[in-house]
Automatic annotation (TrEMBL):
InterPro entries: At_inactive_RLKs, Leu-rich_rpt, LRR_dom_sf, LRR_N_plant-typ. The keyword Repeat applies. Residues 27-68 form the Leucine-rich repeat-containing N-terminal plant-type domain. Residues 1-27 form the signal peptide. This is Leucine-rich repeat-containing N-terminal plant-type domain-containing protein. Keywords: Leucine-rich repeat, Repeat, Signal.
Length: 327
């Protein structure tokens, strides 16, 4: 799609506004959506019935589609989660939607990779490097069969929420994630990610939670994820993280769940952690011997710390089932 085509669409919009508010301007978006539909395998045939060429109201009335509220009928949101979709998701086509801000594909059986060769995309959404303000703020492709690495997401600098849990992503987490200023919810659990967590995570953003459990991550726990004092959950179970628990989390007054068991952490548990006012779960088990602190063993905890934390500890030690942020 050339810029000229887009300009034409723009003027077309205004000259025919009264007659064809929906169909004209969105015709590019319409084509993209129809192409998208044709590349998906849809187990329940009714599910995308409204996605068709002459549907009257146009793509803004398609199931799962939300358009710009300022009235120019461009697609800003696609929500196809939990619709029994499979096949290879055509990220390349979606990148042609100029105004897309939210993409939700969770809980399907979609496969494929977030492709490396997206620089040809006409949209600013996916282009790496040169575009400084791509508009995608919300990406949820969790619980699918996606693979490849996450490097193509490093340019999505406006991300607020990134949900990619339960896929087959491998490779390293782009260090650029640590520089995203708006990222608050990051869920990458149950993939095959390696390397360190970006150490800058949270130093610029108001983190609400991170869940990167059940990967193959190494290196230390980033110290700043509660820097702005808003974080509620830090879940890094079952990786191979090393070093000690940063002292900074002992002053994270909002923290409700702190779970780092099944790693290779060492050192001393910051004493203040046990007394945090909102903490419901602190989970260090399986790893306790490595901390070398007899006083954190169960029987001694019951003598030494306040009763609320005793409960906390028992719940965690007794096999708390809320292992993940979405549980
Ligand atoms: C529609 O609105 C969005 C958001 O304001 C803007 O980015 C886009 O350029 C507009 N498109 C047209 C065709 O006016
Ligand atoms: C991105 O968002 C900004 C602010 O909402 C808007 O002005 C701009 O037109 C958008 N760009 C695209 C390509 O939609
Ligand atoms: C991107 O553009 C290059 C050069 O124009 C071309 O060789 C390549 O096949 C294109 N890739 C895609 C995915 O369209
Ligand atoms: C972040 O996650 C929390 C807890 O699940 C939720 O309440 C909040 O709305 C999410 N924020 C965004 C921006 O998605
Ligand atoms: C975890 O890391 C430690 C220290 O780098 C290493 O010795 C150990 O083999 C790793 N364990 C696994 C399961 O990868
Ligand atoms: C903890 O492990 C790191 C390497 O992972 C090591 O450099 C450090 O000396 C260890 N500290 C203690 C107290 O064992």
């Amino acid at each position: 799609m050339s810029p000229a085509t887009r300009n034409f669409g723009f003027f077309h919009h205004f000259s025919f506004l009264v007659f064809s508010l929906f169909t004209v301007v969105s015709s590019d978006d319409l084509q993209v959506l129809l192409k998208l539909k044709s590349s998906l395998l849809i187990s329940n045939p009714g599910v995308l019935n409204s996605w068709k060429l002459n549907s009257g109201a146009g793509p803004c009335s398609f199931t799962g589609i939300t358009c710009d509220s300022r009235g120019n009928s461009s697609v800003t949101e696609i929500d196809l989660s939990r619709r029994g979709l499979s096949g290879e998701f055509p990220f390349n086509s979606v990148c042609e939607l100029q105004t897309l801000e939210k993409l939700s594909l969770g809980f399907n059986s979609l496969s494929g990779i977030i492709p490396g060769d997206l620089r040809n995309c006409s949209s600013s959404i996916w282009i790496s490097g040169t575009i400084s303000s791509p508009n995608l703020t919300y990406l949820d492709a969790s619980a699918n069969l996606l693979n490849g690495d996450l490097s193509e997401l490093r340019s999505l600098t406006n991300l607020v929420s990134l949900q990619l849990f339960e896929n087959e992503f491998a490779g390293e987490i782009p260090p650029e994630f640590g520089e995203f200023k708006d990222l608050v919810n990051l869920s990458l659990y149950t993939n095959k990610l390696t390397g360190p967590l970006p150490q800058g995570l949270g130093s610029l953003a108001d983190f609400d939670f991170i869940d990167a459990s059940e990967n193959l991550l190494t290196g230390p726990i980033p110290p700043d994820m509660c820097k702005t004092g808003k974080m509620k959950a830090l879940l890094l179970l079952q990786n191979n993280l090393t070093g000690s628990i940063p002292e900074s989390y002992a002053s994270c007054l909002t923290l409700e769940r702190f779970r780092v068991s099944d790693n290779s952490l060492n050192g001393t548990v910051p004493a203040g952690l046990w007394g945090l006012p909102k903490l419901e779960i602190i989970d260090l088990n399986e790893q306790l011997p490595r901390f070398g602190h007899r006083r954190y063993k169960k029987r001694e905890i019951s003598r030494n710390v306040v009763s609320r934390v005793q409960q906390v500890f028992r719940r965690a030690a007794g096999g708390d089932r809320r292992r993940h942020i979405s549980d």
